[in-house]
Every structure is written in structure tokens, then in C-alpha cells.
Amino acid sequence: MLSPEHDLHRRRRGRNASLALVLGGFVLLVFAVTIVKLSNGGQIRGFDHTPETLVVGQ
Fold it and tell me: What's the pTM?
């Protein structure tokens, strides 16, 4: 005979589902921002801790 689910487990499952949705939304937001930044076609430059002079306007 199976006992009915305890109220604590039901509430915990609801909180876990909400947290999963929030985390999934955050991952999608970071992914979308990354795609937008990469699709702009600008220069992607790494930072190697060395001084560099950039010539602007050429």
C-alpha cells in the first residue's frame, strides 16, 4: 500500500521546479547575450596583460 505524498515533499518539489525555471532562464539570457555580442561582427580581442596602442580611425 502506497502512502500519500507528504506536504513537505510537495512544497519542496514546487520550489525545485521554480528554481530550475529561474536557472534555465538565466542560462538562456547569458546565451542570448553571447550570441548578440558575437553576431555584431566586431573584433574579438583577448587580454594578454601587455600594453598595446590601438590606432583609431583607419
Answer: 0.59
